[in-house]
From TrEMBL:
Keywords: Membrane, Repeat, Transmembrane, Transmembrane helix
SMART domains: CTNS (SM00679)
GO cellular component terms, A-Z: cytosol; endosome; membrane; trans-Golgi network
Name of the protein in question: Solute carrier family 66 member 2
Keyword Zinc-finger: no
BP term (GO), one: retrograde transport, endosome to Golgi
Species assigned in the record: Papilio xuthus (Asian swallowtail butterfly)
Membrane disposition: Multi-pass membrane protein
Lineage summary: Eukaryota, Metazoa, Ecdysozoa, Arthropoda, Hexapoda
Subcellular location: Membrane
Domain of life: Eukaryota
Gene3D superfamilies named in the record: 1.20.1280.290
Amino acid sequence: MDWIISDELGLTVGHLVGWGAAGAMIIGGVAPYIPQYRQIKRTQDAEGFSLYVCLTLLVANTLRILFWFGKRYELPLLIQSIVMNITMFVMIHLCVTVRKKNQIIRARERIFTAQPDDTARWLDQRSSIGREKPRSFYDMDRKYFWAWTDFQSYLDCMLVFSVLGAAITYLLIEFSPFVELIGFLAVFTEAMLGAPQIAKNHQNKSTEGMSLSMVIMWTCGDIFKTAYFVIREAPTQFWVCGGLQVSLDIIILFQVWLYHDKTAAARRLRRGD
């Protein structure tokens, strides 16, 4: 009887640990962006945070959702992808709002899709030499990609990507190499999450505006996530790219140390010290 109770208790504890780990995977992925969100909200300055971080995660998690239909992995990882996409749109909305508010001189708006009135105006003006084309025909230029001035453009862009990805996946769902490729692209893209922030820090020669708490939580979360992938025997793509992600986190932490003096000077200048 004692053996049966012990066995039952062990099974229950195992379930609780599993549920706790799954909950940590879902919430833990979002948690690092809370301090970054609060910092942008408090300082009303979004220049230190790269929106390409949001693009990277939106693409990675959309691909991961598509991968689930071809190769069913654990449900908590699917839920994490959905929650992460929602979180990234919240971050984008805040950054776009803050940047609009901080404009001293109102810049020309950049949007992802052409509006009907813009198209009609272009048709009326196309024979006039020297006249400027309407705004939307410039927005498809790579120079302005993911640098639009309205939140709707980011939604439209990801909607187009999701619909095209879903259509291709539906057609090739029975082709195993294609499904494996989606899985690899999903986790590899997520593994490169730190790359846009590394580039932003290198360009600014400072980490001012970037939340150190966010990066520390990134690192801890990625270490936990990679260990979770290995223990739960997730597809190989997951844990290999998880290790790459941890490496990029360490590079960002190195930049914090490398640019410490310039970051402190930029922070004093912003405060007016």
